[in-house]
Amino acid sequence: MKKITTLTVLALIAILIGTSCNDEWTEEQFEHYIGFRSPLDSKGVTVLYVPYSRKTADGNLLVGQGRSNYEIPVIVSGSTTNEQSITVHFAHDPDTLNALNIARFQSRTDLFYQDMGEGSYVSFPETAEIKAGEDVGLLNISFDFRGIDMSEKWVLPLTIVNNPSYGYQPHPLKNYDKALLRIMPFNAYSGNYSGTALLNNIKGQEGDGSIVANTITGYVVDEKTVFFYAGTINEDRTDRANYKVFAEFSGGEVGGTITFYANNTDLNFNNRKEASYRIVEEMDATRPYLMRRYIIINNIDYEYDDYTSIPGSRITYSVKGSLTLERDINTQIPDEDQAIEW
Predict the structure, then answer these.
(1) Are residues 110 and 218 part of one domain?
(2) Residue 6 — pLDDT band, cuts 50, 70, 90?
(3) Is residue 264 part of a domain?
(4) What is the CATH number of the domain that holds 269?
């Protein structure tokens, strides 16, 4: 009898536990907050890689050269499916970007992120729809990159507008109801090149050891042109805009030539040899859907003056060698910006 009673009690407990678990699946455990899907990196922003020109699947321009778009996800949080149609309202949010700049850089205004929402490079609708039965909507942001100066660190700050009459509640955590989007347009030749084979020397001291940088970034100018910072100068230098060296690519899918030039006459830029490039593509041995594309720039050979590091003095540098860009591309994904493994 005691054994039967024990089994009965255990059965009742199992039923109660089962009922409790079922309730957890049918009843909302959290809140249906509205937020962006835009995780922040160590610098406090979300990096978005956007094609300089948005193209169709067959390679034709979708809108026009220098014009593109990006759809950023807007999500409904919670453990159950959203059951109502929600119109989410958005606004430009310069205050949050200003707070980030002060927190990270304090009085160093020369290091501040620049507000992309204050110019003519970007536009976005005031609302986006999340349909009933769905937990994700898309805010379509349009870009016009023509004439953009990528020596500036462009960030688009957005916020979800909080108004009780709209019938939703923005996520209470600022990392979700606000987005700080670091916009990085790219073309076929931009990105982070390996710089270990590019040697930088003070002119006349080539035998005394070279300076190299592990990574040298090529920034978009237009569909066929990028710029590098001269020598080992990088984005952290406040006078970096003075040291832009442009590289214009002429050729096809296999390779061609590159014209290096500078617009700043104070650099005393002297290109001593015509550079060339070649493109090599190979499929990954273990992931057959992954294509590795290499752009190899050879015969880089130029001189420039660093005229700002030491006031009143000029140092002439000689830069020789090669650069290599690697892109890993998932051939199963049709959208170029999503297919590249950044």
Answers:
(1) no
(2) low
(3) yes
(4) 2.40.128.440
Q: Looking at residue 32, what is its pLDDT?
A: 84
Give the number of other Cβ atoms within 10 Å of residue 177's Cβ: 21
Q: Is the same domain home to 161 and 239?
A: no
Residue 176: give the domain boundaries.
33-186
Q: CA 55, CA 186: separation in Å to the nearest integer?
A: 13
232 closest CA partner among 295, 319, 302 = 319
One domain for residues 99 and 57: yes
d(CA 54, CA 187) in angstroms, rounded, equals 10
Do 282 and 301 lie in one domain? The reply is yes
Query: pLDDT grade, residue 110 (50/70/90)?
Result: confident
Residue 22 covered by a domain:
no
Shared-domain flag, residues 123 and 196:
no
Q: Are 232 and 268 in contact (CB under 8 A)?
A: no
Same domain, 223 and 281: yes
208-264 residue pLDDT tens: 778 999 999 999 999 999 999 999 999 888 899 999 999 999 988 899 999 999 999
Exposure string of 299-315, with b = 16+ CB inside 10 Å and e = fewer, is ebbbbbbbbeeeeeeee
Question: Considering the entire predicted model, what is its pTM?
Answer: 0.86
**Band of residue 336 on the pLDDT scale cut at 50, 70, 90:** confident
From the centroid of its chain, how far is CA 148?
15
Does 168 share its domain with 115?
Answer: yes
For residues 214 and 195, the answer to whether their CB atoms sit within 8 Å is yes
Instruction: Report DSSP letters for 25-60, one per residue.
Output: HHS-SS--EEEE-----TTSSEEEEEESS-B-TTS-
Which tokens belong to 173?
């955590």
pLDDT digits (tens, 9 = 90+) for 179-217: 999 999 999 999 999 999 999 999 988 777 789 999 999
332 in the same domain as 206: yes
